[in-house]
Amino acid sequence: MSKVAILGAGAWGTALAITLANGGHAVTLAVRRPAHLAAIRTAGANAAYLPGVAIAPAIELTDDWSAAMRGAETIVMAVPSRFARAAIAPLVRAIPAAAALVSVTKGIEPDTLLTMTRMLAELAPPAARVAVLSGPGFAAEIARGKPAALVAAAHDDPVARRAQELFAGPLLRVYRSADVVGVELGGVIKNVIAIAAGIGEGLELGSSARAALITRGLAEMMRLAAAAGARAETMAGLAGLGDLVLTCTGALSRNRALGHKIGRGEPYLPAGDGEPVAEGAVNASAIRTLAARVGVEMPIVSAVCRILYEAAPATAMVDELLSRQLKAEF
Description:
This protein folds into 2 domains: 3-178, 3-Layer(aba) Sandwich (Rossmann fold), CATH 3.40.50; 181-322, N-(1-d-carboxylethyl)-l-norvaline Dehydrogenase, domain 2 (Orthogonal Bundle). It has helices spanning 11-22, 34-43, 65-69, 81-88, 116-123, 139-143, 157-167, 180-202, 207-227, 232-235, 238-249, 254-263, 279-294, 299-309, 315-322; strands spanning 3-7, 26-30, 60-62, 74-77, 100-103, 130-134, 148-154, 172-177. Helix 8 (180-202) runs antiparallel to helix 9 and helix 8 (180-202) packs across helix 13 (279-294). The mean pLDDT is 95. The protein is an alpha/beta fold. The protein contains 15 helices and 8 strands.
């Protein structure tokens, strides 16, 4: 049994808290807002983010994040990327020296363009004890014990093994990897491609268009990941293609749902405080900036950015992508 602190009580943080507690670990779930904490305690469930899934009494709930980390062997960061640094920076001194840090946030910082593990390593070195958990898994399904497979990655193999063994269970298979940047970028970019897939569905473009978009979206993921030093096989695995397919097609995908609304003509409205976040809408601009910095062409990401941030109509994505100059596929 391990002592685990999970920072952030959104859908994913809550689902992992339930999974780890069911596996016999001592789990503390740190909630940001006192009102949210009170609501969870009253309902016995996180109705705002994970309705209908009971939270086991064994899970300790608190809004004192420093206290939550006291004595923890593993600290899981489940804070949305745009809030992550502000949430973690004041807590650095409270992180136990021997604790492993595991990011489960699929995003990059908008200003620094750092991945979450690089941000954590910058705030709380050494980088060797930082890992990422990613891959194709919907919080609601994993919390209900549906089978899934994820990837734990770290530069230091013992840390990757530690995360792998912590999260693995009878119905959750966890692989490990040394390709931290590939696992992280796969989880970030696929959200933007899923918005594009949702837009296509909202425009009723059909299944053929969706298949083409997913495939060419994977090509964009592979180009940027390669420029960042990632391995090609990572993009063909769970953290790349697997997560991309799930997020572009699954009914529980926030990013796909957001794109679907946009395709049907609804305006894009950023999520408010306490609302579930579609990370693709938050990270699309940062991904476009990162691609420009390393000289990588990402036409799908660029089209989504124009729709989200520049008031381009949803149909502009179709026009932009289909009017591109003809070329060889590879």
